[in-house]
Amino acid sequence: MADTAPPTDADPTLAELLATHPHLQTDPTCGLVFEGVALNAIADAVGTPCWVMGAGTLRHRLRRMQAAMQAAGLNVGIHYAVKANDHTAVLSLIGEEGHGADIVSGGELARTQRAGIAAGRVVFSGVGKTDAELEQAISLGVGQINVESAEELAIISAIASRLGRTAKVALRVNPDVDAKTHAKITTGLAANKFGIPFADAAALYAHAASLPGVQPVGFATHIGSQILTAAPYRAAYARVATLVRSVRDSGLSVEVVDCGGGLGISYRTEAEGQPEALAGAIRAELGDLGVRLAIEPGRWLAGPAGVLLSSVILRKEQGMAAPFLVLDSAMNELLRPSMYDAWHGILPLAPQAFSQPTELAHVVGPVCESGDTFARDRLLPRLERGARVAILDTGAYGSVMSSTYNSRPLAAQVLVEDGRWKVIRHRQTVEELWQDETMPSHLAGHA
């Protein structure tokens, strides 16, 4: 299944991709420019593959998201979904803008603390939190733990009681709403592993109120990722609103509704999800409940703020058929095309390339997997060995999903803003691939 519905229209042209990515421009001398920085200059200095994040783009999108909520008359706490891009520089920027974080592991919690985000502004989600992670979160005093099951609620109660603490919890409700997204990133159907069945939520909330060590504060829901319309949100929030009223009618307090995230972006020609539409859905279904509201955006904020720079290491001709352009980037850098059949825009870095005729080409990586493919039958200017490209919209679920498969070192990362750039992660060396490995003594002679 594709990342979204199978395309029925033509791919966007290079000019159309530029038009929908205003943070990118072309310069007749230095080529593709990102937030005032020539991407060729970065590639010259640090090589490729290289991830580049635009701090200005990320700030702009954060502020637009917040403005959309405020314009709808909503006071909504923004908790950035750390899983989208967990670099501490990104998290520090989120904190500087006054926002919190949504985490799904103890490692992500540690990253938020290193980045200076107060524990009280952290929401801990996830279907399988370990005892050690829960102890860490409760000890630090995270703002909220989103509980995924009755079994997890009992574990939290026991741990918090042992620590002499009270954990604020929200029950994550599975509303059984189809978000109409990729099967691997939908999370709100009854068949998914996430959340508490809607029919069980009210009784479990009442049970939580009787347990030591926990304070139930409300409900959370999250129905999936790469959602492009407001309709699934409205359906889910309507069900949550019914639940809130029912629980309150039974005499219990509900202070919080965590609306989740999942707002999608335009990778190809699909219309980007609109924060204003999300705000409208929240206001329509939850605006009269008098609860504290929160959202957990990730992809919408970070995705368009990043590109992956790569170089053509081989042009493999196939007679009259489309050539293979083998990049120095691979599926171990950007997994989404292999995992989800995801479409990502590709732009050349050279200035003259935008005025040249185009041809069909297959863009692939060097890893020994047929799935190591970024694009098939993509219209691009003729690219020879050494040509550079930028793979677009990789700021979310890009570097965080990287691996060292085929013993390929992790790529460098760079942050750009206001015409300046800085390396925020140096390229891993080959020797660092095995620096934590140890050799049994009986094999030492064969090292």
Description:
The chain is an alpha/beta fold and 447 residues long. Helix content is 28%, strand content 25%. The chain has helices spanning 14-19, 39-46, 55-71, 88-96, 106-114, 131-140, 150-163, 198-210, 231-249, 275-286, 299-302, 336-340; strands at residues 24-27, 31-34, 37-38, 50-54, 76-81, 100-103, 122-124, 144-147, 167-174, 196-197, 214-220, 256-258, 292-295, 306-318, 321-327, 346-348, 358-364, 373-381, 388-391, 412-417, 420-425. Helix 8 crosses helix 9. The longest helix is centred in the middle third of the chain and has 19 residues, at 231-249. The protein is globular. The two termini are 45 Å apart. Its cofactor is pyridoxal 5'-phosphate. Homodimer.
Number of domains: 2
Which consecutive residue ranges, at least 5 long each, have pLDDT under 50? 181-190
Envelope shape? globular
Say what the CATH topology of the largest domain is: TIM Barrel
Structural class: alpha/beta
Summarize the structure.
Helices cover 28% and strands 25% of the residues. The protein has 447 residues and is α/β, with parallel strands linked by helices.
Describe the SSE topology.
Layout: H1 14-19, E1 24-27, E2 31-34, E3 37-38, H2 39-46, E4 50-54, H3 55-71, E5 76-81, H4 88-96, E6 100-103, H5 106-114, E7 122-124, H6 131-140, E8 144-147, H7 150-163, E9 167-174, E10 196-197, H8 198-210, E11 214-220, H9 231-249, E12 256-258, H10 275-286, E13 292-295, H11 299-302, E14 306-318, E15 321-327, H12 336-340, E16 346-348, E17 358-364, E18 373-381, E19 388-391, E20 412-417, E21 420-425
Parallel strand pairs: 4-20, 5-6, 5-13, 6-7, 7-8, 8-9, 9-10, 9-11, 11-12, 12-13, 15-17
Antiparallel strand pairs: 1-2, 2-3, 4-14, 14-15, 14-19, 16-19, 17-18, 20-21
Helix pairs in contact: 3-10, 6-7, 8-9, 9-10
